Prior knowledge:
This protein is α/β, with parallel strands linked by helices. Helices cover about 35% and strands about 20% of the residues. It is built from 13 helices and 15 strands. The protein has helices spanning about 5-15, 40-55, 100-115, 140-145, 150-155, 165-175, 200-205, 240-260, 295-315, 335-350, 365, 380-385, 395-415, and strands at about 20-25, 30, 60, 65-70, 80-85, 125, 190-195, 205-215, 215-225, 265-270, 285-295, 320-330, 330-335, 355-360, 375-380. Strands 3, 4, 5, 6, 7, 8, 13, 14 and 15 form a 9-stranded mixed beta sheet that branches. Strands 10-11-9-12 form a 4-stranded antiparallel beta sheet, covered by helices on one side. Strands 1-2 form a two-stranded antiparallel ribbon. A hairpin with a 6-residue loop joins strand 1 and strand 2 (about 30). The longest helix is centred in the last third of the chain and has 22 residues, at about 295-315. The protein is elongated, with a radius of gyration of 23 Å. Zinc ion binds near residues 86, 97, 98 and 131.
Amino acid sequence: MIRIDRDRLWRTLMELKQIGAYSDEATGLQGVRRLALTDADAEARRRCVEWMVEADLEVRVDRIGNVYATRPGRDRTLSCVLMGSHIDTVATGGAFDGTLGVLGGIEVMRTLNDAGIQTLRDIEVGFFTEEEGVRFGTDMLGSAVTAGRIPLDHAHKLTDADGKSVKEELVRIGFDGPAPERRPVPHAYLECHIEQGPLLAEAGVDIGIVQGVQSISWQRLTVRGEAAHAGTTPIGSRHDAGLVAASVVVEARRMCDSGEFGQLRATVGNFDIGEGQTNVIPHRAVITVDLRNPDDALMTAAEQHLAGYVDRLAGQHGVRIAWERMAKTVMVPFDARIQDLLAATADDLGLPYVRAMSGAGHDAQEIAAICPTAMVFVAGENAGISHTPREYSNPDACGNGTDVLANAVLRLANEADEPVS
Ligand SMILES: [Zn+2]
């Protein structure tokens, strides 16, 4: 078994945290704001490329700005083992989401170098463009283009709130690479990522072996009612868009509590009733509905129930309602053989683990479409809270997760055959 250098990994994590650092008013902590293809992202990308070059890796950039770095194996005709994740963050990000998998991957390469280990297959570490979807509106963008789910041309034309396109910004920051976005198919893909949830901490373990990523549905709901005087309009003759939107919020929660839809999670994270005038009945409301479910059939049932509920509300209150689909992904199961290989690796390292579904979306769910894929989760403190500067995984948890990654990658990179899985 090999062991990565925990101090070196931690120093790297803390160094990258300084790029895009901001002082967060809500928490009083230093956070990270490194939206995809901004100047901060560009600086972090350049720093990672420097680390890759220092580790003697061959770096290439593809046409959607994904960056890969290769450590050659003995037989370069064989497909590689790929590690990766992302280094872009949300506007209120922390130091671990995504970066642990990328910097952990670079640390694996350094460790292999230090140990003088040559593998049979090439090993690559990479990072994917715009995983968070915060700037250009589509999450897992770079990995989805690589996996062929989103055409390159479509991705290039996506724009941010200021009308700047992905393509323009790739060119501007110098990451509009020449490598084909449909990369050579890897032997396997492994992603080490913080859990962003409480399950590992509750189980008292640092390591999770991820079974898959649950189905995600994002919809936008626009309610059109009628503005009217708050004092003179009788309750029975109102067309209150705000009331209808609020009812959806409450129903979404009731659906979760009912147990009818399995492990459904529903969130209305955006609630806009326009001008917000104290003495006027809201005539328009826009909300987003985020549904998550590890079961596709129950997800469909939840969407249908909500649509029916909203229809009834529209009739009852005399309002017009429009749904807009923002995103939908089905449940993605990870490769069973690689999950077992990760479990065996954790056992050999003496690290206890649990198996868990992922509640969040990850690049791995896209790459799973092209090659056998699995993920290692690392526990976080404060119930695994993430997308906030409070996000924190301690040096031991990060080190343990990266040790599992390192040894699993080593095993996969010495596999001669393409196993059927
Ligand atoms: Zn992430």
